[in-house]
Design a protein that fits this description.
Helix content is 42%, strand content 16%. It is an alpha+beta fold.
Amino acid sequence: MTSQAYLDTIKAKTGLGPEDFRVAAAAKGLLGTDVKTADIVAWLKADYGLGTGHSMALVSALGQVAGQRLPVEEKINAQFSGAKAHWRGTYERLLAAARELGEVNLAPTNSYISLLKGTGKFAIVQVTAGRLDLGLKLPRVEGADVLEASGSWNSMVTHRVRLADPADLTPEVLAWLRRAYEIA
């Protein structure tokens, strides 16, 4: 469904268009720089009964959510700030290995970084102070040693590798990354 189709469905259901929602969001204090996309989605679900896809179409139409329109490098820098800074070198090594395979585009969100081959996602990187998680899209691949099913962690990928130490970025992990890139 296109964004416009979502907006048309929302208008039919609620009688409101994007500008009406902008006014309502402003009245609720949901247009400030400290507002997260999840806050707006939760409001739209609770007050208007909209689903996630419809809510995200409105968030996009509002186009003002802090962090949503930041340049890619700023979003990436934010992921490696503070206690997570020590993972930056590991991420850079991982990204360099992926780029040896071919073109890699980056699509960071506020919580993880998607690695794309063209427009196809083949991996994600999510960082916490204690761990770097690498999600891989490996359909029809059984887990092995470091490779576990992603489960409920992230539905955009099939497998997860938990790196608790920068030294955990081993040739085996890079081989799985290569395989995900080739499949994409």
